[in-house]
Amino acid sequence: MSETQAPVKVKGGLVAYLNVDGAIAAAEFYVKAFGGEIASQIPPDAQGRSMHVHAYIQGTSLMLSDFYPEHGHPKVESQGFLLMLPIENDIHARFQRAVDAGCTVVQPVEKMFWGDLYGALKDPWGVSWAMNQQA
User: Fold this and answer.
1) Residue-level pLDDT at 132
2) Nearest-5° angle of CA 43, CA 83, CA 85?
3) Which among 118, 92, 115, 95 has a CA at the least distance from the CA of 35?
4) Contact yes or no for 132/121 (Cβ under 8 A)
5) What is the pLDDT of residue 124?
């Protein structure tokens, strides 16, 4: 998407916007690991950074940007949050897809005390993800 094209539709009531070191690569990874598509992106600059990537994952928007320390946006590590994917069925296959793509297992899928199946992952950019399938 060029910077002059109309923006794509934002999906979801609350949109996560991640700042990572390598926004285009991260978005491509998320599509591979969790399914979906890249809806638009600002072309990379000379350093390979993008100021905006917009992906659709499970029918909702996920937005990403690289860090730009020269513009007051320094690199910081991911912390204090996770992204939760509600899974309708076959959580084990969806979880394995993410692992096969390169996510690290933090907590394998297990039946939890609240009755649902739940598992947790960390992606190569340090972002925490969880999957939950209602029983």
Assistant:
1) 98
2) 105
3) 95
4) no
5) 97
Both tokens of 55, joined, read 């992906």
Token pair recorded at residue 60: 């909702």
Structure tokens at 50: 């993008």
Does the pTM surpass 0.85? The reply is yes
Q: Are 26 and 64 in contact (CB under 8 A)?
A: yes
Query: In angstroms, how far is the first alpha carbon of the chain from the final one?
Result: 41
Q: Does domain 83-133 have CATH number 3.40.50.12710?
A: no
Instruction: Identify residue 102 by its one-letter amino acid code.
Output: G
Domain 16-68: assigned CATH number: 3.10.180.10
Helix (H, G, I), strand (E, B) or coil at 17: strand
Q: Summarize pLDDT for 63-110 with one digit per residue, the tens.
A: 999 999 999 999 998 889 999 999 999 999 999 999 999 999 999 999
Q: Pinpoint the residues of the chain covered by CATH 3.30.720.110.
A: 83-133
Give which of 69, 57, 55 is closest to 27, Cα–Cα: 55
Pair of tokens at residue 25: 């690569």
